[in-house]
From TrEMBL, chain A:
This is ABC transporter ATP-binding protein. It holds the Pfam family ABC_tran. It comes from Paractinoplanes lichenicola. PROSITE patterns: ABC_TRANSPORTER_1, ABC_TRANSPORTER_2. It comes from the Bacteria.
UniProtKB/TrEMBL annotation, chain B:
The keyword Transcription regulation does not apply. Its main location: membrane. The keyword NADP does not apply. The lineage of its organism: Bacteria, Bacillati, Actinomycetota, Actinomycetes, Micromonosporales. It holds the Pfam family ABC2_membrane. Residues 22-243 form the ABC transmembrane type-2 domain. It is found in: Cell membrane. This is Transport permease protein. Signal peptide: none annotated. It is a multi-pass membrane protein.
Amino acid sequence: MDNAIEVRDLVVERGRRRVLHGITCTIPRGSVTGLLGPSGSGKTTLIRAIVGVQFVRSGAVTVLGRPAGSAPLRRELGYVTQAPSVYADLSVRENARYFATLLGLHAAEADRAIADVGLSGARHQLVGNLSGGQRSRASLACAMIGEPKLLVLDEPTVGQDPVLRADLWGRFHELADAGTTLLVSSHVMDEAGRCDRLLLIREGRLIGDDTPAAIRASAGTDDLEEAFLRLIREQEKVAA
Amino acid sequence: MSARITFATAARVLRQLRHDRRTVALLIVVPALLLALLYFMYDGAGGTFDRIALIMLGVFPFVIMFLVTSIAMLRERTTGTLERLLTTPLGKIDLLFGYGLAFGLAAAVQGAVATGAAYWLLGLETRGSAGLVVLIAVVNAVLGVALGLFCSAFARTEFQAVQFLPVVVVPQLLLCGLFVARGQMAGWLEGISDALPLTYAVDALAQVGVSADPTTTMWRDLVIVAGATVVALVLAAATLRRRTP
Ligand SMILES: Nc1ncnc2c1ncn2[C@@H]1O[C@H](COP(=O)(O)OP(=O)(O)OP(=O)(O)O)[C@@H](O)[C@H]1O
Ligand SMILES: [Mg+2]
């Protein structure tokens, strides 16, 4: 089994509106896959289906060889929601240690994850008193504890400065080299180039699924942002 | 269900409480102050004060823990921590019992302070022991926690959550026999009163007031309150869905 995630004909409806229209894709193990698309295109919805918290209309999502959301997966998976989901009335360290305990891991692993996101200096601060970017890093730290087999990150680098963003992406690749599979959604095209593979999604349909190099080549431009725009225009022509 | 996760969750909830000093102070001091108010209203200790103060020792923890829990659980839902928790090995029961344990413990401290103040400072007198009063208060508090966990599922906002207080708590208070003796109510009202758990909690406290040793009726009442708590917890577990639309 060299695919960490397999999605087949996934259809999701939210509030009586169809949000994902039959998505099919696979995500190889030990890679960093970027999930890109405009606001409202369905990135979060696809991510929620993969971590098993989204009602789905039809289709199948298989994660590490099991149906998404099944109990054994809950020890293998780290999930960062788009809005930081940590307790504002606990310190960074108390948050991380709580999530470590849920996985049966030691405090040292929690401290390591805090260091990885560059929050060691703020570990005793209440999350409610952190800056927005620090808060989302606190949320990220809680997901990275114990190096899970699969890390699903919904826009983890929003509000981070370029240096920190480079550090975080460095850490993502270290984890991938050690065998972790990462799925990272983003708005920012300059992050797309840092991924091993890209999934481009638009209005609930997949319009690209390849390596950044292949996407650049097929669109005939070196600029990923431009490549994405050309793919969209092509799609519109096909639809018309 | 895992003991480690349940205890870790209870510890986490208590830590959250500890960082909120003002809430802790209010939790511990307010019931005692309200009892003092009753004391002055009834012009010192005596029959009526004894009867009402005793019942209030059971009612305060129920009301307060209901409110605190429904807001705490609502926050878990709205801030996304619940969604995240449900992707970890934490079981629904771990979460619910964790809350029950944490706020049950807080209620024990609150009950001990309020009961201590009532007996030593305000001269409350009962035939039965003060220890039983604290026990009933804690069971009542856990009932409040369980109902709070359940009701929070039906609120989208904190405004709505607070509105469940008049819906869930006040009718129980009106019909528990404090204002009108249950025997003097219209038959249908007494029937409703029979179906409400707080009625039994109040009856158990009244038993402590009149008899030196714990009576069978008191134990029966307590078992009923505990049973209602379990039912509310099961219903609350049913409202915790891993998958949401
Ligand atoms: N709880 C909900 N109920 C109903 N519709 C929803 C809900 N959440 C999202 N939607 C709709 O589903 C669609 C996809 O939303 P989704 O959150 O997956 O987008 P996204 O790609 O993550 O956007 P963004 O980049 O802004 O986070 C949107 O049209 C949105 O309006
Ligand atoms: Mg999103």
